[in-house]
Amino acid sequence: xxxxxxxxxxxxxxxxxxxxxxxxxxxxxxxxxxxxxxxxxxxxxxxxxxxxxxxxxxxxxxxxxxxxxxxxxxxxxxxxxxxxxxxxxxxxxxxxxxxxxxxxxxxxxxxxxxxxxxxxxxxxxxxxxxxxx
Length: 133
Known about the structure:
The structure is a single chain. By secondary structure, the chain is an alpha+beta fold. Strands 1-2-3-4-5-7-6 form a seven-stranded mixed beta sheet. The longest helix is centred in the C-terminal third of the chain and has 20 residues, at 113-132. Mean pLDDT is 89; it is low at 2-11. Strand 4 (65-71) and strand 5 form a beta hairpin. It is 35% helix and 23% strand. It has helices spanning 19-24, 30-44, 83-88, 113-132; strands at residues 2-3, 50-54, 57-61, 65-71, 76-79, 97-99, 102-105. Helix 2 (30-44) packs across helix 4.
């Protein structure tokens, strides 16, 4: 997978060039949680997908923005970047806090790998469909 850099900043206003730098600045246990989420995403995206820092968060791109993730003081978030995907997986998201484009989860409890892969694959399909039009 290719890595691309973006000069965005984290919530502490320190410029992070890439996902590795972002994660290095995240305290435990959120760092380990996000590292697991990142590994699951990487296993599901095509080799030509890229990782960037966009809007100050680690983001995967494939034919456009795909998914992102971030740490906050009291939770972590997974960003499917699609409200329709959240609606599609409403049953899988029972018990998780969600909003229009975010799935929030505890800093010490990553989302299930199966759920992350389903969301990533759904987003890949959406982006591929958009590019065909």
